[in-house]
Write a structure and sequence with these properties.
The protein is mostly beta strands and about 280 residues long. Helix content is about 0%, strand content about 50%. The chain has two domains: about 180 residues, Immunoglobulin-like (Sandwich); about 90 residues, Sandwich (Immunoglobulin-like), CATH 2.60.40.1150. The chain is built from no helices and 20 strands.
Length: about 280
């Protein structure tokens, strides 16, 4: 189960994000008391927002929502799924669900409103300790050749603050991926790697997904042949079909990135991958 409670320290933060359960994305956003939904990015572990130096504590008012499942897969054979939204707080929580099309441009995620998928009900109230079924249904026929990607944004709609309250009010937003399988073929991801060793000795590693299905990269290790890893990247890294993503990886302490060729090993949701990558010099 994906579980997150909005918890924030500090006075300057507008939005906080964390990864939950490998797929979901959680945001704590400063509220303007309107049910507006802003763009979201990604997420992985339970939400713990820590500030090393705390100058002025802020009182936070937010519900506590959990959503399951945290990954949604639709197809021509399964055109709808049911999500369970639970309120573990002690106050009723108004929740809004919005569907967005998910694409990637210039090494970043782009979310745009869509009518391809329907959420029902789109807005609802969950009593303390209660649950609500949220149905996600496909309205547009799947693409024959390539997987499509969307996200559902499950957002807490904050009420008006109490008159005696002096703290900031934050809203919880959970962003869940939706993948719609291609209908005419068994789609699969395919990565092509390239890299550049920078003047600072870092590795700018790129991967192009030439396949017809997304891939989620979880960890990357960079090594010379038969040696311990010289660098390691850990984090959620989606690459949608036809897209390129680039990450800059810093060498481990006491290690350097090889000048000419490296071995890349990646753990992904499609299984482990390995490749020899010839590096360009910058």
């Amino acid at each position: 189960m994906s579980r997150a409670a909005c918890s924030t320290l500090g006075t300057d933060s507008r939005t906080r994000r964390a990864h939950v359960a490998g797929d979901a994305e959680v945001h704590c956003a400063r509220s303007n008391h309107q049910p507006a939904v802003s763009q979201a990015l990604h997420s992985r572990q339970a939400l713990f927002l820590l500030v090393a130096s705390l100058l002025t504590p802020v009182s936070v008012m937010a519900g506590s929502l959990s959503v399951t499942p945290v990954r949604i897969e639709l197809s021509s054979a399964q055109r709808s799924v049911a999500l369970t939204v639970r309120n573990d707080g002690d106050q009723p929580t108004v929740v809004q669900a919005q569907l967005v099309a998910w694409s990637q441009v210039d090494n970043d995620d782009r979310l745009e409103p869509t009518t391809d998928i329907l959420a029902s009900p789109p807005i609802f109230t969950v009593a303390p300790g209660a649950s609500q079924i949220l149905r996600i249904a496909l309205r547009l026929a799947p693409d024959a050749a390539r997987e499509r990607a969307y996200r559902v944004l499950v957002t807490e709609v904050p009420g008006k603050p109490e008159p005696e309250s002096t703290g900031a009010q934050f809203a919880l937003k959970i962003s869940l991926p939706i993948f719609v399988d291609a209908s005419g073929t068994k789609a699969a991801p395919q990565l092509e790697w390239s890299g550049t060793r920078t003047a600072k000795g870092e590795l700018a590693l790129s991967a192009v997904n030439t396949g017809a299905k997304h891939i989620k990269v979880q960890t990357i290790e960079v090594t010379r042949a038969g040696t311990d890893p010289d660098a390691r990247f850990a984090g959620l890294w989606y690459i949608l079909p036809g897209q390129r993503r680039t990450v800059t990886i810093t060498p481990n302490d006491g290690h350097t990135i090889a000048a000419g060729r490296v071995q890349v090993k990646a753990e992904t949701d499609a299984g482990p991958l390995a490749a020899d990558v010839v590096l360009e010099q910058r």
